[in-house]
What does this fold into?
Amino acid sequence: MSAGAGRALRHPSLALGATLTLALLAVAALSLAWTPWSPLEIDLGRKLRPPSPTHWLGTDTLGRDVVSLLMAGARNSILVGVVAVGIGMAGGVALGLLAAARRGWVEELVMRFTDFAFAFPAVLSAIMLTAVFGPGTVNSIVAIGMFNVPVFARITRASANAVWAREYVLAARACGKGGLAITLEHVLPNIAAVLIVQATIQFALAILAEAALAYLGLGTQPPQPSWGRMLNEAQTLLFSAPRLAIYPGVAIALSVLGLNLLGDGLRDLLDPRLTRRR
It folds into this structure.
């Protein structure tokens, strides 16, 4: 067993987080090829049926299979989270590296832009986009991605500034290397671990934001399944069929918990200072 694998096994939070995250990814991937029933199939004759061998978690108010809805909802959450975090990383990391490399008025301009962007959280951005373009998954992705840009910009800039002060970077500059070469060869590889950990945390927040937007009617629209909209549809049945709210709520909670534990575990594993303290 390698040293890295041994350290990973000594982090229960990392193991549990990885297990929950892999389970989420496996369910989402499986839903692409198979679900017990079509998540779009409506049959009012079998609405609100309790769990049974035919419908493992029962059916909803439209007769749709709850397991199939949960599986398809996981796929939607993964899609929104991956694309939104990708947008945030692409824009934020580029801005943060630029601010750390150029300093001066460029850094000041980037930081003021991030301050301005923080004034528009994902939900508020989605409301504005909805007012102009209408609700939908794409607008949710854009709103969440825009909110992630300043987060990654600040994290990248702070981490990159620390690397730029290191001796090997000063030596590279003395040898005549340009800012772009130093950024790509020395700065970015040394802050990659920080960015990976932050990406897992933002992924969890993106799943929460997508569920919140769908719950408010601003995100994924019918007939596409969404955990947030499942909660919205179940709120009038909390006393007669509370299971319809419990299932998507547990799915969201386990997904966010798994990603947060994975992020904490990766931070502990990749940060040598924390490893020495243990």
Summary: The chain has one domain: 12-30+63-277. The chain has a mean pLDDT of 90. The longest helix spans residues 66-102.
